[in-house]
Amino acid sequence: MSTIYNEKDRxxxxxxxxxxxxxxxVIGVGWIFAQAYGNSLILYGAVAFSxxxxxxxxxxxxxxxxxxxxxxxLRPEDGPEAKEIYRxxxxxxxxxGLPTPKVYLVPDSALNAFATGRNxxxxxxxxxxxxxxxxxxxxxxxxxxxxxSHIGNRDILLGTVITVLVGFVSILADMFRHSMWFRGGDNDxxxxxxxxxxxxxxxxxxxxxxxxxxxxxxxxxxxxxxDSSGALLTRYPEGLASALEKxxxxxxxxxxxxxxxxxxxxxxxxxGKHISKLFMTHPDVKERIRRLxxxxx
Length: 297
Prior knowledge:
4-stranded mixed sheet; about 65% helix; 10 helices; single chain; mainly alpha
């Protein structure tokens, strides 16, 4: 029988399996490239570069994302509607045992929302003006609970780190392919490293694609986890299920959405663009709704 508790446990296990596999994959790619060049410093440099990029993402990713979306801070004193939204956020934060996050409004009539921040103490829940105006209270509560679950499950940091790692693999692959045109060295050295060079060339083509697919798989699992955790917070899975129906049926795309931040939203912000399920950042919305309505609270 499907319950909120076993859905949450199952998705946590799958998320960590994918994340562990991704990290092993990145280390393996770096090692192959280092062997092809016969220089272990490449691997050390790769690790150092990824750490620096992760630190930058950790401290400033939320500010960058909010600026990209043109979001503005919403305060309780901004009016009755703002006060009601803050009341929903505060109640859910208390239920989840989390600090109350800041709330931002994205000036867009599309229905969508996302969470960002480096940890629960510095978290942000961002809602579009469209989703605030067009959802009923129980539906909006379900959406906020979903985003609060991303905060509680540390998905907001996980998503940022994975994005950086995927970008790093792509950069490393590009550097390897271009450097092959200028590679020198004696014939004996070239023959000794030929196997690793060939493997490296193949990986330089396949690695970015594989890394992106792993990123998308992790993103999809995180959405299932946030759905089940959000339903646990509200004790009313139908609220989020109904909200997802309205969000997915809304034909209007989010104006400021980018491919880099696509995975952060509660639903795909690019409407009307049908792509293979393999390359989707979000699981099928019908499957999400079905799972929510089959849960026992």
